Amino acid sequence: MKDIIYNLWQLLPRETEAVLLTSRVSRRYISSVDIEEGLVLLTKSKAYYLTDFRYIEKAKNSGIDFEIICSSKAEEAIAELLDRGKIINLSLEADNITVARAERLKKRFSGCTLDLSGELDKAISTLRLVKTSEEIEKIKKAQEISDKAFYHILPLLKQGVTEREAALELEFFIRKQGADDVAFDIILASGPNSSMPHAVPTDRIIQEGDFVVLDFGSVVDGYHSDMTRTVAIGSITPEQRHIYDTVLIAQMQALKTVKEGTECAKVDKTARQIIESAGFGKNFGHGTGHGVGLEIHEGPRLTPVSNETFKANMVVTVEPGIYLEGNFGVRIEDMVRVTVDGCEIFSKVPKDLIVL
Ligand SMILES: [Mn+2]
Predict the structure, then answer these.
(1) Which of 44, 185, 204, 298 lies at 20 to 30 Å from 160 by C-alpha?
(2) Structure confidence by residue, pLDDT tens digits, 324-333
(3) 141: CA distance to ligand 1 center in Å?
(4) pLDDT tens, position by position, 247-275
């Protein structure tokens, strides 16, 4: 914890005297304890965790090295701490604060200049890019649960169940395996619904000749996993096979470019060129991947306009797809850890087309 706070100060502008963390995810990242509501104040010499009666016992029992303050008026308590510390420059999480709250805080912390430039958000995102070994272990565990869940759900996809039923069973299994939660609303899209990259499960009955896109993840100790597989039900057409193979080649070639020092945009370019040269450029309308951690989507972005470069121990997805509107779609996604000479793929589920 101390290291994270030290590293955060290194990334902040020199004039910053204190930092107020309002978002649950940043408070969790910096303190390592997850408390629904509260505020964290960091000064150069102290760290305070303010929360109310509902969460105070958890905060106290967490063993974190913060001064824990119980208050139902946390903003007023912060104002006092700022006054006492003679702090005149406070940095806030601009991405997390509503305009109304910013206006209120300007009045409440009237002795202070509030930095709402986004520097703090940027600094925390930068820290979160590279994962520690503890974070990686949690992400791996989350992926292990997802791998098991994939095999659990396969037999069910054969039986003519609805997307909604299959998605629910998948979620139930993931939770039963000990995950905190599913990483996001499960995408389980069959037949024509699979052409929508972020389809919501419907009452459609899975049928012979369908592609079924399964995009899902698990959360373990706050850390997410993310994977996508596309499976076929019964027989498929040569067109479906061709598109599956194109996506698979694009995904595998893109994976080969992942390593420390490579530009994130190159991974996207590799996948996109393969899909474009097969004539489906306009059918791949999203980025190739994203970072994963305390949030399902975080930095770095693997898009054509990404200006980031891979560092070892970043965790990212590689997930190209081809979507034929009203017809079908294919996406294949792995989550990987960037290494010095390549990447470690977390999902052990094979990617050769599974025909059920
Ligand atoms: Mn993803």
Answers:
(1) 185
(2) 999 999 999 9
(3) 17
(4) 999 999 999 999 999 999 999 999 999 99
> How many angstroms is it from 335 CA to the middle of ligand 1?
8
The rounded Å distance from CA 336 to ligand 1 centre is 11
State the Cα–Cα distance between residues 165 and 60, nearest whole angstrom: 42
pTM of the model: 0.94
| CA 17 to centroid of ligand 1, rounded, Å | 37
Indicate the SS3 state at residue 219: strand
Instruction: For residue 37, report the distance from its CA to the centre of ligand 1, in Å.
Output: 28
Write out pLDDT tens, residues 160-176. 899 999 999 999 999 99
Q: Which domains does the chain have, with CATH numbers?
A: 2-129 (3.40.350.10), 133-345 (3.90.230.10)
CA of 156 to the centre of ligand 1 (A): 23
Bond before 300 cis per omega within 30 degrees: yes
What is the CA(183)–ligand 1 centre distance, in A? 10
Do 130 and 149 contact (CB within 8 A), yes or no? Answer: no
Residue (of 274, 232, 277, 280) closest to 251 by Cα position: 274
